From TrEMBL:
Lineage: Bacteria, Bacillati, Bacillota, Bacilli, Bacillales
Domain Dihydrodipicolinate reductase N-terminal: 4-127
Positions bound to NAD(+): G10, A11, R12, G13, R14, M15, G98, T99, T100, A124, P125, N126, F127
Record-stated family: Belongs to the DapB family.
Enzyme class, UniProt record, top EC level: oxidoreductase
A Pfam family reported for this protein in Swiss-Prot or TrEMBL: DapB_C
PROSITE patterns reported for this sequence: DAPB
Protein name, as recorded: 4-hydroxy-tetrahydrodipicolinate reductase
One Gene Ontology term of the molecular function aspect: 4-hydroxy-tetrahydrodipicolinate reductase
Designated gene of the protein: dapB
Positions annotated to bind (S)-2,3,4,5-tetrahydrodipicolinate: H155, G164, T165
Key words, A-Z: Amino-acid biosynthesis, Cytoplasm, Diaminopimelate biosynthesis, Lysine biosynthesis, NAD, NADP, Oxidoreductase
Amino acid sequence: MSEVKIVIAGARGRMGSEAVKLVEETEHFQLVGVIDHKNEGMRLNELEGFTADVPIYTDIDKCFFETNPDVLIDLTTPEIGKVHTKKALQNGVRPVVGTTGFSEKDLNELQQLTEEKGIGAIIAPNFAIGAILMMKFSQIAAKYFQDVEIIEQHHDQKLDAPSGTGIKTAEMISAVREEKQQGHPDEKEIIEGARGANLNGIRLHSVRLPGLIAHQEVLFGGDGQTLKIRHDSYNRASFMSGVKLAVENVMKIDLLVYGLENIIE
Ligand code: NAP
């Protein structure tokens, strides 16, 4: 594979700093710059913990003009991630984006931009390949088990609940499962919320505790048996094989892909 020139936005962050390591350690990847909202004019290796000698830009257009990258990896925030994704496509740079919060309208607009520019884009709310497989395996299981509950567990700094992966899992299961109202028809919540959120009759439970990273169990029940499909991310390195896969794939496509499940066989 020919060398892929990469810019990372959010490089100082927990995900971004892992992505810097990934790019440095991957033979056919080359880091050419980073985008930050501070440290303009400095080199990345002037910041503590980094060895890559590449420029830091606060102006994304200037960064793209001067470094001429193939790919932008964006690991910033939902608001900034959206702006950067659009800017990248407008500049002919293929975005690989790990931030969430894209609406249907945003995705349509980005899809149109990929068509106009004839380049690919990948937005992946979850880069953990194990989590993608958990969703796919759950979809297979749901054809045989109608009764299912999802328990997702995350660190206590997470702002949204249920998690994007929890919702996505319930949607993928809904696509193949005959809709069913689970539990006893007369069940009553003694304390509101006890039975969790309800997506097409599938119950979603969100646990938030310090010490956790990202974990999810999909629990199926049938006559005399249960089936548990579980995934655990123990650190942010767990997301990097998915980032690598996305960068390699985004170079080969000319459309917008939303979700790594669409590029994993
Ligand atoms: P983090 O540690 O807070 O890192 C975010 C980084 O972005 C920080 O260095 C932040 O700088 C920087 N930043 C903020 N605004 C910026 C801007 N305008 N331009 C450039 N950089 C900017 O968060 P994280 O845990 O690494 O997560 C990063 C993102 O990835 C989040 O949106 C998170 O939800 C997402 N995420 C995705 C996955 C996945 O699998 N897809 C997994 C985990 C996390 P300051 O600290 O100075 O503000």
